[in-house]
Design brief:
CATH class of the largest domain: Mainly Beta
CATH architecture of the largest domain: Sandwich
Shape: elongated
CATH topology of the largest domain: Immunoglobulin-like
Radius of gyration: 46 Å
Largest sheet: 6 strands, antiparallel
Helix content: under 10%
Strand content: over 45%
């Protein structure tokens, strides 16, 4: 690189701007982000932050909607371009090719103030068969945050805490300084209450005192040199500090923990020296100036030290907060001085609750690997506690609830956590509370179960509701399981507890056999990140064959028998959250062969060689070997026709001695039309066919058409 170009690049880096074309070999010549009415381009708005180029853009709301325009270097070389999903934004539509000029997509950001390492991940597929190229566009959100005093009250009194409301356009972006900070005559701290930013000021010296309040933000703004600026302009306020009616005595400790040691032996403190303070004397500290106040503490003065202070023993007996008012230092019942400090209980936990994603607060302290939880600790003196958790990642934001009586933590449970019990520590001391790690026990759809009742294996989840017809001998029904489907990557379901019910009926819906298999346990396969923790002797490793449990084997079932199989998750394990799948397997047949005896009556018989349409006969008898045909979409329902062959005794029941009666027996092929009603016992089918008279040697062929009588018992 020439020396002039090298210095030019250094100059651009110094001012926070480096064109991406100099920094990376990109498929995209520009990325344009449109937020509200502003437009931000990678070629013009890239800055250097954390040692890498990032596209800076300004936002006002945490859930800004932005349009992203992508301009490729060579539009024709890109076959497909997609934007990966992220927890930091929602895709509002898909990536669209705009007239082969550029690509565009719309996104909605989520909680920009809290987002870390924000970026767009693009997958670019060119026209070749090469694998897609992943290109990452780093984003650097900035916002302009302002903080101002909401009131002009500047009068303070020594030892009296005063709270001021600060107005800000983005409270979430302010880093709160919750501990007391000492400055020149004024101590201060910040707090948040009901969405308001509050400044607590405690004066301890007289006169005009200027408070210089440095504030920091979570997300920066950009200065004139396009550098990230996390410090807000210094907030200054001059107060007039007046003396109280009584001399205020400062105690070097603003907060004392009340316990057995401070009650009996006391705690060593130093106070301001004053000519009216006597050494080797015990002073009462009460909550009111008048006699008869509640004893809060006792102060025993020991001796003076070189910095014009007095070394004392302080024994505490009751609780007190600075915000509750002054404390009065008394010699007997006579008030000598005023002071103020907090006496708070030792940090103690009274209750712990867990909030799972999408759930409610619960006292059940079980957590699952890989999940993110909110943990609420309730008790007293918690503002002095520093809690740690075995192997958990603390991702608590600065705006989480932190008070003397309640703390809320946001914690991430590692997916590969090896502990079964997570200890909760307060400043390295174990507490009596702990979290229990429990493997996921969620019902998964039955895509991991397959059924084979013929020559093909089918996934149970893909089976449609309704009867499944099978046209052959049912050799067996086998259920097999694919454990590797249950847990995939970070989506865990855990062990699957199943029950299997089988009910076998015949064609008349009469119960033949009934069985139930309980406590079927399918454990996730080796691909699961929690595979080592699912082990157990109760895990089913093989298949389930119905012929191993049924008394009446499947290959011995008659036509139109039914196997009603119900697979469900164990209610004792999942309650009402389980899945139920019903399978209705029907042994279907297309045809049926039987011998039928019927009585055709009034047949119109046409004989070969005779003129005319023939004569009507009397009651005949037919014995036919016939084929019946089942409806292909209905269970055990015949079609209205039958075809067969057999013998017909013409006029078999005509006992007249008249020579005109023509009786004979013929071999026939006959078709019959039957009514489709199922409940009628007496029906009148219609017969059509032809045959051969056995006794006639000349013109033996004949044809017939006519009704008959059929009685069904």
């Amino acid at each position: 690189m020439p020396i002039k170009k090298f210095y030019f690049v250094l100059f651009l880096i110094w001012f926070g701007y480096l064109p991406p074309s100099l920094a990376q070999n990109s498929f995209l010549k520009d990325v344009v982000l449109k937020v509200d009415t502003a437009v931000y381009s990678r070629n013009q708005n890239t800055i250097y932050a954390n040692g890498e180029p990032q596209l800076a853009f300004t936002y006002d709301n945490d859930d800004e909607i932005a349009e992203v325009n992508l301009y490729p270097v060579n539009m024709a070389a890109i076959y497909n371009l997609s934007l990966a999903a992220s927890a930091d934004y929602d895709l509002m539509d898909s990536v669209v090719n705009v007239n082969n000029q550029y690509f565009k997509v719309k996104v909605k950001f989520k909680n920009l103030t809290a987002a870390q390492f924000l970026n767009f991940t693009f997958s670019i597929q060119d026209t070749t068969t090469a694998p897609p190229r992943v290109e990452i566009q780093k984003l650097f959100p900035v916002t302009n945050t302002t903080v101002q005093f909401a009131r002009n009250d500047t009068e303070l009194y020594v030892g009296e805490e005063k709270i001021f409301e600060l107005t800000t356009n983005n409270l979430k972006n302010i880093r709160l300084q919750t501990d007391w900070v000492k400055s020149d005559g004024l101590d201060y701290r910040l707090s948040e209450s009901n969405g308001l930013l509050r400044l607590h000021v405690m004066p301890n010296a007289l006169g005009a005192r200027t408070l210089k309040l440095p504030l920091q933000t979570n997300k920066p703004s950009l200065n004139n040199y396009r550098k990230p600026q996390y410090l807000l302009p210094l907030l200054q306020k001059t107060f007039t500090v007046k003396a109280s009616r009584l001399k205020f005595i400062n105690i070097d400790k603003k907060e004392i923990t009340a316990d057995e040691v401070t009650r009996t032996k006391g705690v060593e403190v130093m106070i301001d020296n004053n000519w009216a303070i006597n050494l080797q004397k015990t002073y009462r500290i009460e909550d009111q100036e008048q006699p008869g106040g509640v004893l809060i503490a006792e102060l025993f003065t020991r001796n003076t030290v070189t910095n014009n202070r007095v070394l004392c023993w302080l024994r505490v007996y009751n609780f007190h907060r600075i915000s509750e008012g002054y404390l009065y230092l008394k010699d007997g019942d006579q008030t000598k001085f005023i002071t103020n400090f907090s006496i708070t209980p030792k940090a103690a936990i009274k209750n712990i609750q867990v909030l799972h994603e999408g759930g409610d607060w619960t006292s059940n302290l079980t957590v699952n690997p890989g999940e993110t939880i909110n943990l609420r600790i309730e008790g007293e003196g918690l503002h002095k506690a520093r809690f740690q958790f075995d192997d958990l990642t603390d991702i608590t934001s600065d705006s989480s609830l932190r008070t003397e009586t309640a703390l809320i933590y946001k914690l991430k449970v590692p997916l590969n956590i090896k502990r079964k019990r997570i200890g909760i520590y307060n400043r390295a001391a174990i507490t009596s509370y702990s979290l229990i790690v429990r493997e996921y026990q969620r019902p998964r759809s039955f895509d991991f179960i397959s059924i084979n009742y013929g020559d093909q294996t089918r996934a149970v989840a893909s089976l449609l509701d309704g009867p499944l017809f099978y046209d052959h001998v049912l050799k067996d029904v086998v259920f097999s399981f694919n454990p590797s489907i249950i847990d995939q990557e970070a989506t865990l379901y855990g062990r699957q507890y199943l029950n299997l019910d089988v009910r076998v009926t015949n064609s008349r819906n009469e119960l033949i056999d009934q069985r139930r298999i309980e406590d079927i346990v399918i454990c996730p396969g080796e691909n699961s990140p929690r595979y080592a923790f699912y082990g157990g002797k109760d895990c089913l490793l093989g298949d389930i064959s119905l012929n191993n449990i049924l008394g009446r084997k499947t290959y011995d079932l008659d036509e139109w028998s039914r196997l009603e199989i119900t697979i469900r998750h164990d209610k004792d394990k999942y309650g009402d959250e389980g899945i139920v799948k019903k399978i209705d397997l029907v042994l279907r047949r297309r045809t049926k062969f039987d011998i039928d005896v019927s009585f055709p009556a009034g047949l119109l018989v046409k004989k070969q060689g005779e003129a005319g349409y023939g004569d009507l006969g009397g009651i005949s008898m037919a014995m036919i070997a016939q084929m019946s045909f089942y409806h292909p979409e209905k269970i055990a329902r015949y079609r209205p026709y039958k075809v067969g062959a057999g013998f017909l005794a013409l006029n078999a029941f005509n006992f007249s001695s008249s020579p005109d009666v023509d009786r004979d027996i013929g071999a026939v092929i006959i078709g019959a039309l039957y009514p489709t009603t199922r409940d009628t016992k007496l029906t009148f089918p219609l017969y059509l066919g032809g045959g051969y008279f056995i006794s006639k040697k000349t013109d033996p062929w004949f044809y017939f058409l006519g009704p008959g009588i059929r009685v069904r018992f």
